[in-house]
Records
---
Amino acid sequence: MIDYMNVINESFEESHLWAKAQLILLVYYLYEKEIEDRLDYSIDYVALFTPPEQDIQIIKRDFELIKQKIKEGKAHELSEGDTLYLGAAPKAATSKDRRKQPNSEELAKPRAFAFKNSYMTYVLNNYVVPNKVTYEPIIKNRVVDSFEEYITNRINEYKGYSIQGIIDEFKLNYNKDTKNLGALLAYRILGIKGNRVAEFEKANIVVKTIRIENSNKIKQHMSFPAFKFKELIEETWEESTFGTYLSETRFFFVVYKFDKDGVLRLEGCQFWNIPYRDLNEEVRNVWEETKQVLINGLEITVKNNKRYNNFPGSSHNPVSHVRPHGKNSSDVDQLPDGRMYPKQCFWLNNSYILSQLNEEFLK
């Protein structure tokens, strides 16, 4: 557990966290739903584990970031998306549990230090069961002070290059129609041959490419996986699929911009996770309204052979909205009342994403 009142006076090396985390006995068992007694689960792997030096440096920076946020009286705004390998995971008996924090009258959710599940998955597949999955590291045989600064500097070496210019520079067999071209070019700049980055896998970092028009507008909203209608109405916000995804995910924006001649050029990159209040106020409002629409029964109207619904649209909320996200109109899911309807997903508004970008991209 994170002791908000005392952790701000601890150094990483002498912290209660590091006393427990520097040598861990990992016991991996195979979960099988049909086996009722947990004592009957098969234990498949056992290992002593100490994070490698390059991971320790990132874990230490995560610890300091969490500690600094608590020191600033923002323990109530902690999110697992703030950090890379070490998170501040909610740890409460009920959703109403709260604790005092320093330098603020606002009570905060109880939280515990935890290695992220993405980090522990990587540990299993690469340290405990070697060669299970192949990931490529960006940082090889060295330790850097700041992982994010290192990545940003590498990308910025090619700032101003056109898409074709980067393709030519790395002698790549790509064209403008290559799927996920913007992300692939970023991987190549970072020295990655495929699209599975070790550090990104460990930190649950998701790459998103963004195109800015010369007029400083973004055409595309940002999509996420489609949700299941029946599953969503059974969720609470605290355990919702979309809310949890946004709170635990850190995004890596690779930004391209059209110049005055219509040439798309690399503008730079930034790491981002959604601010606490945007998630727990605006996005939550959209999620709750969507749930209520499904409970009440989706209203569908037809005008000029086009179907319209009463899910919250992009003009309804400054941050998020709901819209279709299936392969085509035949890609459907069953509504709670039994009707079939095209799959939907939550989106972040293009105007909101634009507002979250570094100002230097809009000059």
---
Amino acid sequence: MLPRTLEPEVMDTAQEAADYDSMDHSSVNRLFVDDLLSAANSAGFSERLASQSNWLRILDVGTGTAQIPIELCQRPVSVEVLAIDLAAEMLRLADRNVRGAGFQDRILLQHVDAKELPFDDGEFDWVISNSIIHHIPEPLDCIREMQRILKPGGLLFVRDLMRLNSNEEVEGIVAQYAADATDEQRQLFHQSLHAALTVPEMAELLESLGWPASTVAPTSDRHWTVTAIGYSREGGKPGGS
């Protein structure tokens, strides 16, 4: 197994944000939202998703340029999203994307550190995140905060890259999924794969917070996904899906 090699926590230059936003994430984002809604239906959220009076409040942690909140709001679901990121340049492009999609009334952007969320305990129905964990030097800080602000019975849905066994595997994944990308974009992908956590590493973090190891599982040749149910810290039991 490759050792974990950290990359910068915040991608906050205009060029980095532009490179990220210009990559074709459409199929990955579409699959993320498909799987999120499938998990939500399995967790009993079908009625709320269709409600016209009791909309779900969602926190998207590490939203980048807000591509996933936009994909989610394009579906026929009753959700409002607070989309946060620590990178001001990402949020600048996110604002452009949200306005261009016409969702400024449903997607609110905020400059926030995922390791110190300024929200009340149990404030959100869902907490979602795609590809933020590998940016965090000590990911437990971020996961603990996600757990804290998730309502009991709420849905935690987190997906990220999975660290591989060898440089050869990394090169193969980069070649397969970033063949048409620029050199800078391929380098970002390469670095992210080296900075990612393994499934056992993520399972250990989740177990330390009371969730079962089965809460996380590999879901592609390069991703793992966490699907968990929030629980009360006052004697409640954790849940996985």
---
Amino acid sequence: MQNKLSAEELAYIIQWDIKNWKRALSFWDKHFEIKAGMRVLALGEREGGLSYYFAQKGCEVVCSDYNEFPDSTKKMHAEKGVSDQISYKQIDMRNIDFEDGSFDVVVFKSVIGALGNKEDQDEAIKEINRVLKKGGAFLFAENALGSRFHRYLRKKFVGWGERWRYITRQDLQDWQSNFSSAKTEAFGFSALFGRSEKQRSFLGGVDKAFNPLTPKGWRYIYFGVMVK
């Protein structure tokens, strides 16, 4: 069962568009049981939010990022009392510096798009699978390609929108070929258009109500649990 998280904790873990992206946590919890003592590799963790989330569940977490961590990440973990359960490492997710079968869980949120091309993304997924134990889970929440309107606005208003490679349904199908089972869900349409977190929160409520009526190809977030 998912721990009850405060609004402050959710803001630290999710950071942006909280109402929609926080749904990843309950989706993961529904499809894979996290147990205290599990070893977790969190990728793309500059601010360390997901590392905190799994550490407070009793897991031993490797908090990793491609770049060096700012001092604020370790400071925040110390303030939240989870430093003893977290170690830090610079990692290129295309070449993960751990042995085969090292982790019970590998997790990321809004990370793999930064690789910019399908070849590197597919290589990262193979590496994630390699370092997972048999029966371990790859948990993710990632930006989906979305509708043509989403794609237009990202190119126009998001500084890195043209460099980011957004994930498609075909990508998910390709990833699944590396795993024994997979559960995925697409969510959200309108909250991406919010210009402030207050607006995104309001539009996230709209998305909750109308998500079943929105074509899957229009949704802008993918949640997933893939088990090795």
